[in-house]
């Protein structure tokens, strides 16, 4: 016969074992979510997946080793480098000094979302290209913020500002009335 103390230990051990089984089941379920199997695919796809995973681990290891080698080289050259002595003689007169370069500031261009043509009655049926820039419709010669729309073609829009020009490529056609 099992004593009362032994029964408590068995009961506690049973619950502990059930908890471990639930944790293991949840762990395997989480792993299957992270590492989804390629069910329904050919063995070649499975082999390619394994190869890509292997390649990823190799590339990660190589990148880490290259990074550590670069750090070692940087430390070596930092300690081995000697300071460069200052020039005692000027090679150019001050009047021939190099002009300072100005760094071009980045320009925020409007987004081109589409190019359309419309038949205008006043133009006697000729097509007039329109560009949709930043949610507004423009024709050639109109101002779009600080830019002037110089040219609209089926390939894109040419913008100008202060003597500089930018070409915005037309987006890929997703819908057209003439396409069936």
Please list the strands of the largest sheet in the order they lie side by side: 4-5-6-7
Number of strands: 7
Mean pLDDT level = 75
User: Could you give the distance between the termini?
Assistant: 86 Å
Rg, Cα atoms, Å: 35 Å
Number of helices, where a helix is a run of at least 4 consecutive DSSP H or I residues: 2
Main beta-sheet annotation? 4 strands, antiparallel
Order of helices and strands: HHEEEEEEE
How much strand content do the residues show?
15-25%
**General shape:** elongated
Unreliable sequence segments: 80-84
- Secondary structural class: alpha+beta
- State the helicity in percent bands: 25-40%
Describe this structure as you would to a colleague.
This protein is an alpha+beta fold. It has helices at 4-34, 43-80; strands at 112-119, 127-133, 136-138, 143-144, 147-152, 156-161, 164-169. A four-stranded antiparallel sheet has the order 4-5-6-7, with no helix packed on it. The longest helix has 38 residues, at 43-80. The radius of gyration is 35 Å and the shape is elongated. Residues 80-84 have low confidence and may be disordered.
């Amino acid at each position: 016969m099992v004593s009362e103390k032994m029964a408590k230990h068995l009961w506690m051990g049973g619950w502990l074992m059930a908890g471990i089984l639930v944790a293991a089941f949840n762990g395997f379920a989480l792993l299957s979510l992270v590492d989804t199997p390629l069910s329904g695919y050919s063995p070649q796809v499975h082999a390619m997946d394994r190869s890509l995973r292997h390649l990823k681990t190799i590339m990660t290891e190589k990148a880490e080793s290259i990074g550590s080698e670069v750090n070692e080289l940087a430390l070596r050259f930092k300690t081995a480098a000697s300071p460069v002595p200052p020039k005692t003689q000027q090679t150019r007169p001050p009047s021939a000094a190099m002009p300072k370069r100005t760094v071009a500031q980045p320009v925020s261009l409007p987004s081109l979302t589409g190019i359309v043509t419309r038949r205008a009655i006043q133009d006697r049926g000729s097509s007039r290209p329109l560009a949709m820039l930043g949610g507004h419709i423009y024709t050639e010669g109109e101002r779009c913020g600080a830019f002037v729309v110089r040219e609209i073609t089926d390939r894109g829009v040419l913008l100008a500002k202060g003597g500089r020009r930018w070409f915005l490529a037309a987006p890929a056609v997703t819908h057209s009335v003439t396409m069936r």
